[in-house]
Amino acid sequence: MHRLDPRTKLMASFYYIGIIFLANNWQTYLVMFLATMVMIWASKIKMGFFLRGVRPLLWLILFTVALQVLFARGGTVYWHWGWLWITQQGLINGAYIFMRFVLIIFVSTLLTLTTQPLSLADAVESLLKPLRLIKVPVTELALVLQIALRFVPTLMDQTSKIMNAQRARGVDFGTGNIFQQMKAVVPLLIPLFVSSFSTADDLATAMESRGYQGGDGRTKYRVLHYHNADWLAGGAMVVLTVLLVILRR
Questions:
Q1: Is there a contact between 35 and 50 (Cβ–Cβ < 8 Å)?
Q2: What is d(CA 90, CA 68) in angstroms, rounded to the nearest whole number?
Q3: List of residues 6+ apart from 208 with CB closer than 8 A
Q4: How far apart are CA 202 and CA 208, in angstroms?
Q5: pTM for the whole structure
Q6: How far apart are CA 135 and CA 101, in angstroms?
Q7: How far is the C-alpha of 201 from the C-alpha of 193, rounded, in Å?
Q8: DSSP percent split of the chain into helix, strand, coil, nearest 5
Q9: Which tens digits make up the pLDDT trace of 43-95?
Q10: Structural contact between residues 5 and 233, judged by C-beta atoms closer than 8 angstroms
């Protein structure tokens, strides 16, 4: 899984997210779940990493599931009060939505844990090459993506330093209602934006002083190649799609 071409993993991830909407019964969701577990097993990554990926979105998932359970109607009615219903179809839809969210998060986490950020940027550039025919600056877009990914840890570092400085001045980011917490974030955003623009200006000056003129004609340190495992992964996606189509009803 780690040695697959990043283009294969990127396309397979988007394709997986697309075909998961083909699942409409417990058999198809079971197939998707088993396929996801096989991919996780092949990655040799502990399950805890994937469960931690679900935690930040858990409230959104539960809110969406609650909407399905309380407003979907059909089948046996288990509880009814005003315009709120709990029916057999609502519970089934809620379970399917929950499974869909979890599987998408698992696959997205798998992509990020098995692929280096710069490799993902190279994959995006390679996949967008046909757009050069219509004068889209693919190389420059890939460069922007690479720089953004490269400076994420730097921005996190700066955010932590600014938060510590604000805490030393008496700012509490974790108390109060949602409006008070949003108001406490404003003094954090302004210095962060100023620092980010300053870093961007320094980077632009450094690139110009080194004679950077765009990506046309430049060679690549990381050259992407498809291997047998990539074709095997593509074939597995085709088999998965066929199974979903057969099991749909």
A1: no
A2: 6
A3: none
A4: 10
A5: 0.77
A6: 37
A7: 12
A8: 75, 5, 20
A9: 999 988 888 888 888 888 888 888 888 877 777 777 777 777 778 788 888 88
A10: no
